[in-house]
DUF3040 domain-containing protein
Amino acid sequence: MPLSEEELRLLEQMERALVEEDPKLASALRGTSFQRAARRRAILGGVILVAGIGMLVGAVLLSQPVPGVIMGVVGFVVMLGGAVLAVTAMRTPTARMASPQGASKVRESGHTGFGVVDGGRKHRPSRPRQRSHGSFMERVEERWRRRRERGF
């Protein structure tokens, strides 16, 4: 649901007040620090992912069965954690939304950046359901009666 004109005006007034009150905080929130932090998290996630893969390879090469299995499980968990960290860092909309260009796009379009609503399904107008004749039990009894007559 897009913001009304009154809400947009109030939001812009609050932004101007924040810039006047604390320009250092406002400039920090504008985008470059968020983008750098997301990039750092993505790189860190990639490094952790490679370390987890290295642990898995080390576990395969280890000749002792019990420590190898433990090292393999730990390596898999580390690899999975690194992949999750890297993917979530790349997908966060805060870097896009915090930049001045992203904020102006939001104001112009009226959208907040959340693109998927209700699982992404498009709503179709619902058709009225055809009312079946009789209740469920009546239909079952009718089917049973027809089967008996046919000799099945």
User: Anything to note?
Assistant: Residues 93 and 114 are 9 Å apart (CA to CA). The chain has seven helices and no strands. Residues 32-61 form the longest helix (30 residues). The radius of gyration is 29 Å.
